[in-house]
Design brief:
Length: 291
């Protein structure tokens, strides 16, 4: 349970936010995005104001903001410190959730040793039909080294869903498709070991745990409305810890003392971090955690 969420109206506690509201409806202005830049990423403080600011600065509707068809991820925003809650409609008279594929969940969203798994894996057989979860427009349909055959669909509420490792893609970029449309066939392409569907849910390219949206026990949405707050992004704390972790790939001639000196650490720390002893023999190509 996240204890840091504040539902309801956003609080204006930053002078820049007030300026932003006065500018509403006019030219595209960075300040309208209600946040501050941190390297190349914009920290968003109030997600409702952020979404409103994008709506009012574009002629097109919000779901088509940043319509990039040749880049799966364009990472620009950080919602981990938002102070309010945004409500997105999932099911109503115009749209509803369709399970992409009803199969056993074989891997969860979260940390996978040294990398992060931003989706959920659903077991299937090659050739099984994979369906789009909601009505939307195909933003990406391509082949990538990691995702294999992959389709990304932007939905009317601004959510995106991603379907990877397909054996075949059956939809083209810019196609508008109804919920339940078969977007491809299950497979084992890209960085995949055994046929499965890698399924992601993102909002402005910020990954959400698909389980925040979908109850995979019965393949339905938890609610008809999805509430997005900083609770959905607490996994970023884990990412920060992971970012602080560093590894060394053992090369010919490397010794523990050489590696310890190179990274300004000690042999005993290396032994503790890697569960090895001072007399352990290092293998070329072995990955050693050094921080
Ligand atoms: Zn996966």
């Amino acid at each position: 349970m996240c204890l840091h969420a504040f539902a309801g109206e956003p609080v204006l506690n930053n002078p820049e936010d007030s300026v932003a509201l006065k500018n509403e409806g006019h030219r595209v202005d960075k300040k309208l995005y209600i946040g501050h830049k941190k390297e190349d990423v914009l920290m968003v403080n109030h997600i409702n104001l952020f979404v409103d600011s994008i709506r009012c600065t574009l002629h097109d509707s919000m779901p088509y903001h940043d319509w990039v068809t040749d880049d799966i991820h364009f990472r620009k925003y950080d919602f981990s410190k938002i102070q309010d809650t945004l409500h997105l409609t999932l099911n109503d008279s115009s749209d509803h959730f369709t399970p992409p594929f009803r199969g056993e969940i074989t891997s969860e969203f979260g940390r996978r040793s040294w990398r992060y798994h931003y989706g959920i894996d659903i077991d299937l057989n090659k050739g099984d039909s994979v369906r789009v979860a909601f009505t939307g427009k195909v933003r990406v349909s391509t082949y990538s080294k990691t995702y294999g055959n992959v389709v990304v669909v932007r939905h009317d509420n601004g959510l995106e869903t991603l379907y990877a490792h397909l054996s075949k893609r059956l939809v083209d970029v810019d196609s508008v498709i109804n919920t339940g449309t078969i977007i491809g066939l299950g497979g084992n392409t890209g960085r995949s070991y055994g046929s499965h569907l890698h399924f992601e849910v993102r909002y402005f390219d910020e990954p959400l745990d698909p389980r925040d949206v979908i109850a995979f026990e019965d393949f339905s949405t938890h609610k008809d409305v999805l509430s997005i707050s900083q609770c959905n992004f607490t996994y970023k704390d884990e990412l920060k810890v992971m970012g602080a972790i560093k590894y060394h790939r053992v090369k010919s001639g490397n010794t523990l003392s050489y590696i310890a000196v190179k990274y300004g650490t000690t042999i005993s720390t290396l032994c503790r971090l890697n569960g090895i002893s001072r007399t352990s023999i290092l293998q070329i190509g072995q990955r050693l955690r050094v921080r």
